[in-house]
């Protein structure tokens, strides 16, 4: 079975993306191919002149005609590789990936071939009050197949991980040798994947209709991809204490997180996607 790593990028990040690409090429379990998708035109950057970044040897440049927004990092690859027996690990262009990152995700997904495996994820709704958070923790304890998102510091092991993670993020945020761990203390399922950590799937998890993304929603790939998986009854599995990639110099450069797209901010676009998925597929109710 082949292993493919896939990502996309945007023009303002071209000159800064090389360290990310080199970290993907230096994995202890090398991918058979590392694909970088750069569309021939961009929705967000209509003045893009077609120039390309300098790429290290070993990177496959892919030039789709259309721009699917951040979902470009997976949906083109899934479409092109759908008939192939392979895993696709898709990721963001603003991280530095530790050498065992790909191995961790590929191996976990191989053990769960009918599931998506995401390094990071979240519930579809986050409690806004202390009472709501306590209720969520009680629900997590009663449901062993649901990922544990809270990290109670009364547990010594979790406290030690929390403290080590804090100092790693505070003192050496860009040093790939610092091993940070995800905040998932118990492996389990979640409704929403978060692509910045990396996500391992099989190409047939997404069909051709996945590329038909409504306005506004195209900017929120995590919710769009999660909804497509839920509509096909493909669970999202979060491993516990996963090694987290670190922010690179591109982090924050023209970030969608802070952008307004088609007159909507991130929160409004996420809700629009939730409403769309509920209406079309009857999920997340």
TrEMBL record:
SUPFAM superfamilies: Nucleotide-diphospho-sugar transferases. CDD domains: Glyco_tranf_GTA_type (cd00761). Residues 128-139 have a biased composition (Basic residues). Residues 128-149 are annotated as: Disordered. This is Glycosyl transferase family 2. It comes from Aureimonas endophytica.
